[in-house]
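During the reporting period the student researcher (J.K.) took over the structure-prediction task from the postdoctoral fellow and processed the backlog of single-chain submissions. One of the processed entries is reproduced below for the supervisory committee.
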Amino acid sequence: MQDQEKSRDQLIAELNEIRIQVSNLEASLAASSAQSSSEKDEKIRNLKTIVAQGEQRFRLLFENSLDAVVITDTKGKILECNGSFLKLLGYSTKEELAQKRIAEIFCDPEDGPKMRRELESKGFAENFEIKLWAKDGHCLDTVHAISVFKDSNGATIGYQGILHDISSKKRTEQELEEALKSTAAETEKLRSMIEGMEEGIVLADTSGLITEANSWFLKRASLDRDQLLGKHIWNFHTDVEILTKLKCLFSEYGEKKRTKPLTMNREMFGLHVCLRVQPIFVNGAFQGIILNVVDITDQVIARLAAECANEAKSQFLANMSHEIRTPMNGIIGMTELALGTELTSEQKEYLDSVKISAEALLSLINDILDFSKMEAGKFELITTDFSLRDCVDNTMSTMAVQAHSKKLELAYDIVPDIPDNLSGDPGRLRQILVNLVGNSIKFTAKGEVVVRVATEMEGHDFIELHFSVSDTGIGIHEDKLASIFRAFEQVDGSTTREFGGSGLGLAISSQLVEMMNGRIWVESEIGHGSIFHFIARFGFPVQPALRVIPRGRVTLDGVRVLVVDDNATNRRILEETLRSWGMLPTSVAESTVAIDTIISANNRGAPFSLALLDFMMPEMNGFELAEAISCHKGSNLEKIVMLTSGGQRGDAAKCRELGIAAYLMKPIKQSDLLDAILMTLQKTPDSDLPPSLITRHSVREARKRLDILVAEDNVVNQKLAVKILEKMGHVVTVASNGKVALDILETGTFQIVLMDVQMPEMDGFDATRAIRDKEKITGEHIPIVAMTAHAMIGDKEKCLNAGMDGYISKPISSKELEKVIYTVLNSVETPTLRLKGS
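J.K. obtained the following structure tokens:
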């Protein structure tokens, strides 16, 4: 537009300059009557030259002007026009407009008289809007700047018009006007719509000022519209958290740091409401927000009622678990005690049958209770550190008798590079494997059942493992594959079915896998067996595993222990078991009596070192009793083992909160209880790490871990040995030579030593001889395995002759090293050792 105005001004200025020069020359001619004819001719030639030059400059500017220019005589006849004018109206040549009057191309006949009146009154016309006919017959909206041509006497001799096409501007204005009308209609429609909504609607601009609110919101807020509009949106509530979030949201939306809505559940206007803040963006620019306030009071009340119902169901399940497990504990416990007495072969057979039947019944009860807890939402995983290989090995060992009774091959394969030390719930992992392996054994008449474990995916702080259980059994019909993981579903549900079972094992396994952030599925072909797959996620340990003191070195003689259990049978079993280990048990049936008993023992100078508390007791449960004991000034009892017949959500966290050392599920194996007591009595909490809760899983996992001393001077070989052994789940200490190894053995205790032969200061041979010389006095024997690069004929014999128990040549492999370690340990007498630092 600026270029067009400049072009027009240049054109006018050029015309005025020519006029001035011509006028000056004419005046000069008029005043030169006395001049000679030759002088006049010279001035006339100069005048013609100026006119010709001016006309040339004017013509050049006129034709190249971006403005459309037209020149007419006083009667409106078109005398001249430039190319921009022709282009504007769609003409090709000037001849097409020759002899036409300007009024002929006016769309409105009244525009001609209006223009003449404007020119007669002012002598010019600025921004004069005229509609012109284009050659193709449509009207153009134009704006004109019209000026008058006059002769030297001041008489009008013609007109010049400079015009611009404003059609697009007119269209835009019309569209804007229509859009405004439409917007007004849409606004009214929106207002009517939000007025009828059964929820609160508030609109606010970018600064948070409220621009609209519906009647629902006004009624609940007890405000008139005038009291609310124009006020800040964060002024209608006193909740500091809501106010802070709203202000932050406006900042984030304005800076486009956030574009998604925010939802909050809060109390407002005496109601439970859901607040939803939805930003409004137009062409990427933040324009404000819509606040929805939805009454969810009914839903909250319904949810609270459902939670109460679930809580009641959970309490019922806890009571049922207690009532069922208590007599089962008596049956299994008394059976174990009876089996430890002198029996005839016939009596032992009967009792073995009772124990097997009781354990089968307990397994069925566990399935039903587990499924019920899952249905009630009261089931949780207990996370602990464990050994993957020990977990799978123990599981397969328990299934071996069942498989071998059917003459089936039972095997498992764990990919070597899978880390052994994991964090998760080993008990529930075992439960899944037992269900799947047991299912495969049940439906396999001959052949094999194989468990395989591989890595599915590994992250910085987690690993997903892919377990598969394959069999050579009867297979599953395709139409049953989708239903077998549903509760109470069985492949053969008829009353005459060949295979028994509750139909809950696979359903429970499916839910357990889901809780482990995994999935489960099955592949099968009739007559060719099945493969059950599941993927589960585990973490990595954050602290070293607890170590178990070998029983041969530890004595529990004279250790005073308090047993608190309201069930007489349970008390009797625990008393006899504890006495058999040399402990001095005192048992009470009531929680209130327990505290008095503790205080009395302290006053006599014979305090209890340990307490075994039953969880399910009248008047005061185990957690309440533990808290009362810790809060009583006269009690210094710090070691508590909780015995429960039915775990609940949050029990593990509660144990840690109260400082309870161990948490064991009834019925309790004597070996598990013994190891848990040993671990509890030796447990020293680390001030920098949260205490680890002892469970039956951590007890069993700790049994097979070894303390291993590696004597090796090469740094690379040290790292390799440590990595391999730690993957196996062992605890490793490194000595840089034989002399350092001897010093470490003076202060620490180990199950085995891996000894390099060639080392500085003291080699492996000398170190081994020194160890064996000392053992001649102590009577102990620690296994030593030569780990050496000497692999020539006779080197193995040299190592064995020096007193070593085994030999492995470098480079070492994890499989070979593991084989040698356990071969040596099985071939020598188990050493009596103590915990490090004990």
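The committee noted the following: Residues 491-502, 544-553, 829-838 have pLDDT under 50 and may be disordered.
J.K. will present the remaining backlog at the next meeting.
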